[in-house]
Automatic annotation (TrEMBL):
Any single GO BP term: enterobacterial common antigen biosynthetic process
UniProt subcellular location: Cell membrane
Coiled coil start-end: none
Protein name: Acyltransferase family protein
Organism, scientific name: Janibacter melonis
Keyword annotations from UniProtKB, A to Z: Acyltransferase, Cell membrane, Membrane, Transferase, Transmembrane, Transmembrane helix
Length: 357
């Protein structure tokens, strides 16, 4: 039987693991950075880890997450229409934000292992102040609404205008951590818009048409710039409070985040060509589940290690990161079999109602 495509299927239709691996790398770095923060804040751990690692991670990991989140927005809007797409995404993000705010902030109200960051019951009502990492959800919803309404992919001028406007706004808020829904995360918006404009199928085409040598050169060049920015050290992080938000740290920060994004994408494209890395791609496919659950898991792991007398920061970083990635995967697996899929997705009745609209 002859192939439908004489020279093989288009690159956009072939399964490429680059995006999934990039998500996997990004979520592992996010978990590691939050483990580092937890170790720093714990008085029971002997830590010497206060160095450049945490700022270096915050410079790039969430930027990669934001860029990747934009890659398939145009496809979703084109297939389902802007109204239906926004209804589905909006319902999902609002549900996950409310549910995990209740779980994560509620655990601090209960105390126990979470007593070091105890919260009052009143804080459960302060939904405008995002809990920990959950700020990403309302920001992502707002960014999705923006591009779904503007349709920046319809013309080059419209796309560049939106990219320029969001980049200008990002410079204003870069390095500021206001702890307010939507506002916290605005510095990521141009990276999300860039992902929307680039599109996932184009990433696959570009990767498939690039040689290992070309990808290696890109990774090396981006890595040199990124390491140089980290070595200089005088940079502002996009979404974490930075002590100096003057022009020079902002320039270094933008350069570091952009080069770090290119580095992760190039390395992911190289890794996608190697066998035996399906596990990392799978981690990337389940990155949102890990993102939602890893903070609660991390607090419990740290409490167990401290109770067992483990005080070295290295052990906490290794064990905390490994369990912080694997345990949420286990929770997701169990939830699916215990009819608790609503922990990571819209409850079935809400899904049916949306489909009926």
């Amino acid at each position: 039987m002859s192939s439908t495509y004489p020279t093989g299927p288009p690159a956009s239709l072939r399964r490429d693991r680059t995006v999934d691996i990039a998500r996997g790398i990004s979520i592992v770095l996010i978990v590691l950075s939050h483990v580092i923060v937890g170790v720093w804040q714990s008085d029971a751990i002997e830590t010497g880890a206060k160095g450049p690692l945490m700022p270096a991670l915050y410079l790039v990991h969430i930027v990669v997450f934001a860029f990747l989140a934009g890659l398939f927005v145009e496809r979703g809007v084109s297939r389902r229409g802007a109204a239906r797409y926004l209804a589905e995404r909006g319902a999902l993000f609002v549900w996950l934000y409310l549910l995990w705010t209740l779980l994560q902030r509620g655990s601090r109200v209960l105390g126990g292992p979470f007593a070091s960051t105890a919260a009052s019951p009143v804080e459960l009502l302060r939904l405008w102040r995002p809990e920990g990492q959950l700020w990403f959800l309302p920001w992502l919803l707002a960014a999705t609404v923006l591009v779904a309404l503007v349709h920046p992919w319809r013309s080059r001028r419209r796309g560049l205008a939106l990219l320029g406007a969001t980049a200008a706004l990002a410079l204003v808020v870069w390095g500021w951590e206001p702890n307010a829904v939507v506002v916290q995360g605005l510095a990521l918006t141009p990276f999300f818009v860039a992902g929307v404009l680039v599109r996932g199928d184009r990433v696959v085409d570009l990767v498939s048409g690039s040689t290992v040598l070309r990808l290696g050169v890109v990774a090396l060049a981006a890595g040199v710039v990124y390491v140089g920015v980290v070595a200089v050290g005088n940079f502002a992080m996009p979404t974490a409070a930075s002590p100096d938000r003057s022009a020079i740290p902002l320039v270094w920060g933008v350069l570091g985040s952009t080069s770090g994004l290119v580095l992760v994408l190039a390395v992911s494209a190289l890794l996608a060509r190697l066998p035996g890395l399906g596990w990392l791609a799978f981690v990337g496919q389940r990155s949102m589940e890990i993102y939602l659950a890893h903070i609660l898991v991390g607090v419990l792991v740290r409490a167990v290690l401290v109770d067992e007398g483990v005080q070295t920061d290295g052990a906490h970083l290794v064990v905390g990161t490994a369990v912080g990635v694997l345990a949420p995967l286990g929770i997701w697996w169990l939830a699916g079999r215990a009819r608790m899929g609503w922990l990571f997705a819209l409850p079935a009745p809400l899904q049916r109602r949306l489909r009926a609209v």
